[in-house]
């Protein structure tokens, strides 16, 4: 174990310690390039490797014995109004669901909101489907956070790739460009 790994392990909670987290800034090979470039916004972030088949939150929680209330789920949502596309990245905890057809649709001010198509989601973010995260998104994707996300001391989210996960302070997500808490984001 390197010095950086020892320091990283000391900063995480017992929930994630068994997964051998590493300092994210020292492991670009475990992150999508835009995520690695944005780590300065979440300097405490650590990363751990997983089997890509476990990238789905519920599957991973069951396989690794993790609770859903420390997991963050990000969804990319898009809609159109007057020929203009409107989008956001909405994030909530793993035990909740984003209210796409209510809160998100109203805030986007579109008639119909839906999950961004796979090709658009991966093409515009530089991330893999199943690993998309708000860390590293550009301004085209404002980040809307459920208020509960802010209060999680150590939150597990995507890393931009399916084979790893980031762990960071939930409140650190407010450091991301365009990030804001949204009341009523979940149903």
From TrEMBL:
Pfam families: tRNA_edit. GO terms for molecular function: aminoacyl-tRNA deacylase activity. Residues 52-174 form the YbaK/aminoacyl-tRNA synthetase-associated domain. PANTHER family: CYTOPLASMIC PROTEIN. This is Cys-tRNA(Pro) deacylase, prolyl-tRNA editing enzyme YbaK/EbsC.
